Amino acid sequence: MSIILEVNNLNTRFDTPEGEVSAANNINFTLQKGQSLGVVGESGSGKTQIFMAIMGLLAKNGRTSGEAIFKGQNLLGLPVVELNKVRGVSLSMIFQDPMTSLNPYLKVSRQMTEVLIEHQGLDKESALERSIRMLELVGIPEARKRVHMYPHEFSGGMRQRVMIAIALLCEPDLLIADEPTTALDVTIQAQILELLHSLKEEMGMSIVMITHDLGVIAGMCDHVMVMYGGRVVETGTVHEIFNDARHPYTQGLLQSMPRIDGNHNEDLYAIPGQPPNLQALPSGCAFQPRCQYADAQCRSTQPEPAALSQHRMIACHHITVAKDLIPAMESA
Amino acid sequence: MSLLAKPNDRMAAVLDQQAEACIDEIAGRSLWQDARIRLMRNKAAVVSMIILTIITLLAIFAPWLSSHPFDEVYWDFIQVAPNFSEGFWFGTDENGRDLFVRTLYGARVSLMVGLVATTVSLIIGVTYGAVAGYMGGRVDNLMMRFVDILYSLPFMFFVIILMVIFGRHIFLIFVALGAVEWLTMARIVRGQTMAIKKKEFIEAAHASGVSTTKIIFRHIVPNILGPVIVYMTLTIPQVILTESFLSFLGLGVQEPLTSWGVLISEGAKVMESAPWMLAFPATFLAVTLFCFNFIGDGLRDALDPKDR
Amino acid sequence: MMSDPILKVENLKVHFPVDVGTFFSNKAQLKAVDGVSFELNEGETLAIVGESGCGKSTLGRAVLQLLHNTEGQVIWMGENITGYSVKAMRPLRNEMQIIFQDPLASLNPRMTIGEIIAEPLATHNPDMPKEQVKSRVREMMDIVGLLPRMINRYPHEFSGGQCQRIGIARAMILQPKVIVCDEPVSALDVSIQAQIINLLGELQKRFGLSLLFISHDLSIIRHISHRVMVLYLGNVMEIAEKDELYNSPRHPYTQALISAVPVPDPDKEAHKKRIVLKGDLPSPINPPSGCVFRTRCLYADQQCEREKPDLNTLTEASVKSTHQVACHKQAEIHRTN
User: For chain A, which chains pass the contact test of at least 3 CB pairs under 8 Å?
Assistant: First the structure.
């Protein structure tokens, strides 16, 4: 298997009137072709900013360092002209709110064919044909008729499909999906997840799924990266994360998820405290104020990521302590 | 589960202890305070505020700043250029009156017109707009059609009729300007009110049985003050300019009282022979307008930082 | 538990007039809630679940008389309060409160949290001395897990979870009997959701509260509710006790909803049989004839197109008598499964 995306020591910072804010620190990961990576974290964990940086979509006051090698080419610091040959062609991104990335004043047909004419040099007719085929692929009924409609004439789920169709037009090798189903109802979410899953299987596309919903990750992803306070705290395969979580934050997150299966008569486990404010991160480990194992070392020094295997990494001073808790977790 | 639940309780206990350890209440920082801090970072706005304060102080203390009264005619000094030995710092006008004092007296009238007319428009406009926006439906429709009708009346015609019927009086200028400026204010406030009305905290107040008057004045008005203040700082220069325009047409304040508009009008006539008569009042007017606009911009950025 | 219900809703309808057509405006009715009946008992949590546009939030507000009820009755402790004026409702407002989805938007940004929490108290007890109001506020802040010394701070200085605690304190300060919770945790981070759910459960036990818990999240509902009501296009599809609804859902819509919820377990997800519904929610301005769900239902036939199914109580011996389903094909579907 070949590596499609390799991120080395990526840092993202924002200049604000209150001073410099670090949104993502020392991010390292690789993604194999045809695999899917789930990125989990709460709001402000920096999970979106990593990929905005890779796509070159950071806000004006944002700066990035490190490298993000996509198919052998470092995307960071690439001039816009070069970046545009990659963005929307072999690397696409879809967002939580489809309305923000669709132009409300242009017909869907225009928005779709433009991409094809621009990047693939197709003529108008074949571009339209290709667009209709793509809309059919993402499950839009009567695509031939609907392609000539405006975005607001579609329902929320359909709009999300249109956005996915646009993202897929040039058959990208990697699709970055930022909370693609958060704004949708469960039954529509199920439709979209099913679609993404089949696209991954059929087109051999790699997917990065950014979400806070562990349920979505469990069904979709091969690997998981857990983020907290702008840092990666744990990575592993989906089975390792769900069955053998080692970082106290991952464990807490898994246990605080209300589940439709399992025990419902006890109180939920709740991680105490509040998510960290990136502008005023605590000293040492960012999770330390909310962590039950925190000691003097955690409060003073940032834990270094420790690699257990090629894809397994944990950043915690107390991996051994945490491991002892696994039986307790399974009984819960 | 139980294994994990315990440290959770311990955590809560620690928090409780911390709570008891510092009983004294922490003062919060309101959005107004945040806005003030942001405004103080805006150099143009701060400089503008300083200049405006100086102009205002000059206007207030005008009688004590110069040895010449504003309406005294010096027959020996008709239309002389700035002259420091005699204390005519800005020169004199064609009637031999000291231009420095007259410019400051003009500032009194111009600033007063700006403030009073704006305050009148503020009080009427905010109340009217908030009630219309909050009530909605037919009441809103009726109230806003009335505004539309007033809008469509030709303003100059209105002022001239007032002047003809009641004679030229400074009070009338306040009324005329206030009566026109509140219309825009009412429209702005109505729009803002309709947006705020849909917020959940208004619904929460309803659900607690809070009375309508209290909802309007405790929950809605404080939340629309931001745009209102911004609009106000932009209205003041507009009113000053309108007053100058009226004076320029000869509809403004009566001699020997003066305003910047009157002074500019007089200066413009003798622009070639006595440029100082135009230059000084025009500079004061321009600087004041600039200052208000800079403050307005600064306030807008400070009150709504997202828009930048 | 089965004493007189604290709140009884009978055949409640809320219709909004909407303009359709372009120049000659044709008035149509948006049927947000179309004939809903239920009872809420003391100390009970009834969850109202459904997708966006099913009318669940409208229902919550209509029960509190914050919206005009087109038809039907809301009976509060034996008193028919339907159509009560704002004034007539005022004395009842301290019995029923609401908490909102967006924690920050539900707090007036210009007021300190002390003022926010005190407002209902000051409204209903205008003569209460200031000191007493303040001590009640501090006490309530302590109960919902806020540090009382934060009383003079402003909402924007708090995180989402803490803002929701402030909202809960405001709703609780009059010690109401019923709280309508409108998606109270859906805007919060996962780790904070659990805190708020636990807090609501705790308050319910301590004060004997009844909760009308509106949510689209079936996992959360399973944790907090006693009974669950499933809404679709303003109609009740199914209502049952929690375990029964989750273990043996009878309505095809409920079945699809439950199967669509992702489970945080990769093994279960890999082998799960998921019922994927076709298409989208029809417009509530022009709902389908007969059963409103039929356009997306796998089992729909001509009867479903013609007749609107009644909400019938299940008569089988194996199920509780509180289980009601509105489906013509319910028995058939149950047999084949």
Answer: B, C
Q: Which residues is C179 bridged to in the sheet?
A: C97, C211
Contacts A–C by Cβ distance under 8 A: 135
Contact, C234 vs C54, CB < 8 A? Answer: yes
**Which residues in chain B touch residue C97, judged by CB atoms under 8 angstroms apart?**
207-208
Instruction: List CB contacts (< 8 A) between C276 and chain A.
Output: 187, 190-191, 194
Interface check for C33 against chain B (CB to CB < 8 A): the answer is no
Domain B29-307 in CATH 1.10.287.110: no
C179 three-class SS: strand
* Residues A141 and A182 both lie in one domain: no
Q: Which helix (H) or strand (E) holds C74?
A: strand C71-76
Q: Report yes or no for ipTM above 0.90.
A: no
Start-to-end CA distance of chain C, whole Å, equals 33
Write out the residue range of the structural domain in which residue A225 sits. 1-90+172-332
Of the three residues A117, A140, A169, the one that is the final residue of a domain is A169
A126 touches chain B (CB under 8 A): no
> For position C20, what pLDDT does the model report?
67
On the question of pLDDT at C1 being above 50, the answer is: no
**Ranges of each domain in chain B:** 29-307
pLDDT by residue (tens digit) across A98-142? 777 788 889 999 989 988 888 888 899 999 999 998 888 888 888
Q: In this complex, which of B208, B209, B223 lies closest to C109 when CB atoms are compared?
A: B223
Co-location of A158 and A177 in the same domain: no
- For the entire predicted model, the pTM comes to 0.83
Domains and CATH numbers, chain C: 7-95+176-336 (3.40.50.300), 111-169 (no CATH)
Domain count, chain A: 2
Chain B hits for C153, Cβ within 8 Å = 26-29
The pLDDT tens digits for B205-228 are 989 889 888 898 889 988 888 888
Q: pLDDT confidence of C294, banded at 50, 70, 90? A: very high
Do A188 and A105 belong to one domain? no
Locate all alpha helices (DSSP H) within chain B, ordered by sequence.
2-21, 31-41, 43-60, 62-65, 99-135, 137-152, 155-166, 170-197, 200-207, 212-214, 221-248, 260-269, 275-303
Q: Is B30 on the interface with C (CB under 8 A)?
A: yes
Same-domain check for residues A309 and A320:
yes
Predicted confidence (pLDDT) at residue A330 exceeds the cutoff of 70: no
- Residue to test with chain C: of A186, A191, A228, A292, most C Cβ within 10 A: A186
- Domain boundary residue, one of A169, A190, A216: A169
